[in-house]
Every structure is written in C-alpha cells, then in structure tokens.
Amino acid sequence: MEIFDGYGKFKKIGRHGCYGPGETEDVEAAAQICKRLDIPYYTFDLREAYRKHVIGYFKHEYLLGRTPNPCVVCNQKIKFGFLLEKAMEKGVGFQFFATGHYAKLAKTGGRFLLKKAEDRSKDQTYFLYRLTRKQLSRTLFPLGEYTKAQVKKIARSMELETAYKAESQDFVAKNDYAVLFNEEEVKGGDIVDENGNLLGRHRGIIHYTIGQRRGLGIASDRPLYVTNIDAENNRIVVGSRENLFSKGLIAKDLNLMAIDRLD
C-alpha cells in the first residue's frame, strides 16, 4: 500500500521509517519479491486515508500534550481496514489476510484471541490490540511461530533482498516527529516546576513526553523529569522522579476480546 503523500518537512530520503520518502524502496522491493515467487502483486493508494486517520490523529494527540501510538491506529484502520476494503473493491479475491506481524492467533470458545509471539523480544500484539473479532477471523500470522533470527535465515536461504535490510521500527526516521508539524503549530513556552516557578523555555510541547529527562535544556542540582504537559497553557511541568507515579489511571478504547464486559 502507498501511504506517503509528500506531507512533512523531510530533509532527505530516509529508509528507516514507516512514513517517509523511503517508501518507494519498500514498494519496489515487494514487487521484486512477488515477481521472484511468481505471485500477483497489487499496490493500493491509501495516502488520503492515512493522512486523515493516522497523521491527523497523531498530530491532534501531540498538540493535546499526549503521546500517541500511530501503529495501533494504522493497523486497525488502514492495514486491516481500508487496505482490505480497497482490495475487495478492486476484485482481488482472497480468503485470508496474512501479515508479517510477530503475533499468534487462537480460537477459544468461538472467539479469536491474540497471543504473544514465539519471539517475545519482537512481539507485536500490543500494536494489534484494537483489531476486531471480525478482522482477526480472516487473519493469519505466519511469523508468530518463528524467531526473527529464524525468519532472517529463511530469507537469506532464498536470497531475498529484505534479509539484508536494516530493521525499522520508527514511525518516521529517527523519530523526528517535528517534520510533520508546521511552524505555526509549534510554539515555545515556559518550563516550570510543580510550584509554578519558571525554570526555562521549551521549543514546543510536541518535543516532550511524560517521563522525559534528557534534552530539557535546564540546569538543576537534581534530576528533573517531565511530569505534566499543560497543553492549554503551553507549559511543560518538571519535577522529581517520585512525582511521575500515580495511584490510578483513566483508560479508554478498551478492546475486550476474551470477555464481553468488565464486572
């Protein structure tokens, strides 16, 4: 699928990111592998949907002072949503949708459940947690029973180019999310302690996340961490490590695969 539409201030072509100008290399590599294996190859333009549902979500959350996970939304709405809809729309016949995620699938009591992959260090079930039972019912995870090393070995034995490519887990290259924001969207502001005392200035709240210690640009005789991002007042609040802990949380977007409801 094609998702990069040129949006963002990318300085150069970078290979190590899901979203970016390096996408062309991935598309070409996939086409070559399909040609070698003598299987049909299709490319679907999902740039508009990706911009709206993934980039839009990502920017919205960051500007609210939250740290989003674009991979979760991409899997639910793009890969397992619009991509399959587009394939069916174009008349591509298929019974199951197989992906390269490291995850396992089990059916218990009529329910399809996600299970951790054999390679726990590469397990990706977290990024798939929002998939519906319907989506899971037609999905296959062939890599779930293998380790990454085993998969690489198989790819090398088949002389596939992907066996020698650098691994990429970043949304954008080097996690430089700032390339997705315009200058008018990112405004500097105050860095304060939990009593409101001014300690310095920040470059824009998109550059910070809760728990961050490095790159704050302020001097202190004790370690300081980002304890709160006050988006409404464009302030970064810092404090001691102890202030990072809470006694509770508010969760949303739960996906109860194994049960109907929480009692």
Automatic annotation (TrEMBL):
User: Which InterPro entries did the record assign?
Assistant: MnmA-like, MnmA-like_central, MnmA-like_central_sf, Rossmann-like_a/b/a_fold
One GO term of the biological process aspect: tRNA wobble position uridine thiolation
Q: What keywords is this UniProt entry annotated with?
A: ATP-binding, Disulfide bond, Nucleotide-binding, RNA-binding, Transferase, tRNA processing, tRNA-binding
Q: Name one GO molecular function term.
A: sulfurtransferase activity
Which residue intervals define the domain tRNA-specific 2-thiouridylase MnmA-like central in the entry?
185-240
Pfam families with a match to the protein in the record: tRNA_Me_trans (PF03054), tRNA_Me_trans_M (PF20259)
Q: What SUPFAM superfamilies does the database record attribute to this sequence?
A: Adenine nucleotide alpha hydrolases-like
**Record's protein name:** tRNA-specific 2-thiouridylase MnmA-like central domain-containing protein
User: To which species is this protein native?
Assistant: marine sediment metagenome
